[in-house]
Amino acid sequence: MKKVLFVASEGVPFIKTGGLADVVGSLPKELDKEYYDVRVMLPKYTCMKPEMQEKLKYMTHFYMSFNWGEEYVGIMEAEVDGIKYYFIDNEHYFGGFKPYGDNALFEIEKYAFFSKAALSVLPTIDFKPDVIHCHDWQTGLIPVYLKERFMGGNGYYWGIKTVMTIHNLKFQGKWGVDDVKSITGLGDEYFTADKLESYGNANLLKGGLVYADAITTVSDTYAEEIKTDFYGEGLNSLLNYRAWDLRGIVNGIDYEEFNPEKDPYIEHPYNAVNFRKEKIKNKRALQKQLNLAQDDKKFMIGIVSRLTDQKGFDLIAYVMDELCQDDVQIVVLGTGEERYENMFRHFDWKYADKVSANIFYSEDLSHKIYASCDAFLMPSLFEPCGLSQLMSLRYGTVPIVRETGGLKDTVQPYNEYESTGTGFSFANYNAHEMLRTIRYAEDIYYNKKREWNKIVDRGMAADFSWKASAGKYQEMYDWLIGY
Length: 483
Ligand code: ADP
Ligand code: GLC
Description:
It is built from 19 helices and 18 strands. With 483 residues, the chain is an alpha/beta fold. The chain has a nine-stranded mixed β-sheet with strand order 3-4-5-2-1-6-7-11-12, with helices on both faces. A six-stranded parallel β-sheet has the order 15-14-13-16-17-18, with helices on both faces. It has a three-stranded antiparallel β-sheet with strand order 8-10-9. Helix 4 packs across helix 6, helix 6 (141-150) packs across helix 8 and helix 12 packs across helix 17 (431-447). The radius of gyration is 23 Å and the shape is globular. It starts with a strand and ends with a helix.
């Protein structure tokens, strides 16, 4: 049995702020149980839903020296869908109202603690992984600590390999060197340009990328993009240097959880055969729920997203008024930057029966939107993979995306001459190019409904389950461990 430990800052069904949680919650279940014992380690956040907290069982605790003191490390465990989870408990670090706070220095200290604790608990939980699979900057110190501190100790840690997966290169865990030196207990020699230092700061993700045995990111295109200046976020030279160890493996989604036939959040189940008749019932229900004009024919565009620059909201803001002149309905679910939250609230007020702005987080409404809309808009500036467009495809909702990262790899643009394609896309980060593309989609929807339905057919037939990608992770683990 090969043993793999996922360590991450969020994971479904316990805690989620974005796609990272979906991946951490779904990929382990898809790895072959006969050969891989995969477990997951997360922080025990106080803000976790009470019904999930109840599933956690106390195992033990100890004190660990960290940041000039002795810190409590509680260990809890749970099992969901046959996967074993471990939780690191410490209320000082994980006690906030949200998993992530606004104080950057505290965030660094919190996840430095988490990374050190994740390694420290291994002998106690009696699970020595062959591979520790680290996700994003919050776990970047694990490969560093493992090689520079833990392996030198009693031999328990020898031979453990590490993988660093980049879900979003924008977030790196950066802060002044002196503070990070003091928090991590790592000496001057680690804060050099070939290790944790980057443009004068300490950089936790960079540490992970330098020290990990293998690096992955969540789509092929993003794996290429991050080697360039534009997408490389200052780490492109390092990623070029490590190009042989860097793989792109596209994300999948949980086909059980996201299944229009069995989804408990939607009122009218449907499938690839009967969507022409049944899907519309969900649209009617949503129009009613959100006080939009009751009209089966209206072209309904959905958005479910963190409201940040990454997702292309400045393009939307730029042409929103123009778009609202069209025969469309726009349903938004998201939270994030205030200017985008207010922009959507404003248009909701201005065009009450056309625009519905839902500025909050809701699992329930998100599923309803995927199941009800005709199209899903995601014009991202950059997109490592993107899961929302995969959910849309699965629910027969046609994605309209910019050709970047995983969006480019997963949405095949409609070609009217060959009758191929699963969605609509545009290349340049330009608001009117986006608007033209949306209008092209509107035209097909209103004037060539049979063509539109064939796009839906192809989208629903595409397979974005984890099957293929889980195999690629397994190959990588095998290669790291030795067959
Ligand atoms: P990212 O991880 O960059 O936010 P992804 O497309 O990979 O983007 O994943 C986003 C995930 O978060 C999807 O599962 C999406 O449905 C969900 N999501 C985003 N915002 C909300 C919200 N306000 N309410 C419910 N789910 C949301
Ligand atoms: C990040 C990316 C998103 C990706 C997700 C899961 O949040 O922004 O594109 O799908 O991680 O890998």
